[in-house]
Amino acid sequence: MKAQFIQKALENKLVSARKENLRRLSDIEHRLEFVDHVDGIEFINDAKSTDINSTWYSIDCMEKPIIWLISSSQYENDFSLFSEIDTTKLKAIIVMGTDQEGVIAQFKNSVELIGQVNTLEEAVSHAYLVADSGDVVLFSPACSDYENFKHYKDAGQRFRKAVREARL
């Protein structure tokens, strides 16, 4: 009984620490940054997550079904770390970039809905069509996509703009 009490207390401390970390991260531009609610859909800008470890953390922090907007790049083709992602949280993946097939191959057996697009603006539009009220659209690239963006700030600013335009 005492062991269960201690375990529960530790779990509560971990949950509190994670929530505090999320609060702190939300103060950082382009890192789990709330952008907008559109028809009950939450849009989160995580453009600063240009590696799989950062994206893994972002997905792990989400508590709602996720439509994940991910980039792909010819320069980053080691997808082995994707196996660590909890795909039960993913309602859909929308892939953009130059190595879409590599990303799709990694998730085709674990995520039911996977879409391919050419631009971030198309990704936001597709996500809006797929998402239901209560879902999260998470732009977390998981790689540095220099073919489409100058840097992560450019990607994040374009995501914000695309979300604003989705309201229209």
In terms of topology, how is this protein built?
Layout: H1 2-25, E1 33-38, E2 41-45, H2 52-61, E3 66-72, E4 90-97, H3 100-107, E5 113-116, H4 120-130, E6 136-139, H5 152-166
Parallel strand pairs: 2-6, 3-4, 3-6, 4-5
Antiparallel strand pairs: 1-2
Short summary:
With 168 residues, this protein is an alpha/beta fold.
How is this structure best described in words?
By secondary structure, this protein is of the alpha/beta class. The protein has helices spanning 2-25, 52-61, 100-107, 120-130, 152-166, and strands at residues 33-38, 41-45, 66-72, 90-97, 113-116, 136-139. It has a 6-stranded mixed beta sheet, sandwiched between helices. Helix 4 crosses helix 5. The mean pLDDT is 87.
Spans where pLDDT lies below 50 across 5 or more residues: none
- The secondary-structure element order is HEEHEEHEHEH
**CATH fold naming:** Protein-Tyrosine Phosphatase, Chain A
The biggest sheet amounts to: 6 strands, mixed
| Proportion of residues in β-strands | 15-25%
For the record, what is the CATH homologous superfamily label? Mur ligase, C-terminal domain
Overall radius of gyration: 16 Å
Give the helix proportion (percent range). Answer: 40-55%
State the CATH class.
Answer: Alpha Beta
Number of domains: 1
What is the spatial order of strands in the main beta sheet? 1-2-6-3-4-5
Count helical runs. 5
Overall 3D shape: globular
Say how many strands there are. 6
Termini Cα gap: 56 Å
Instruction: Give average pLDDT, whole number.
Output: 87
Structural class: alpha/beta
CATH architecture: Alpha-Beta Complex
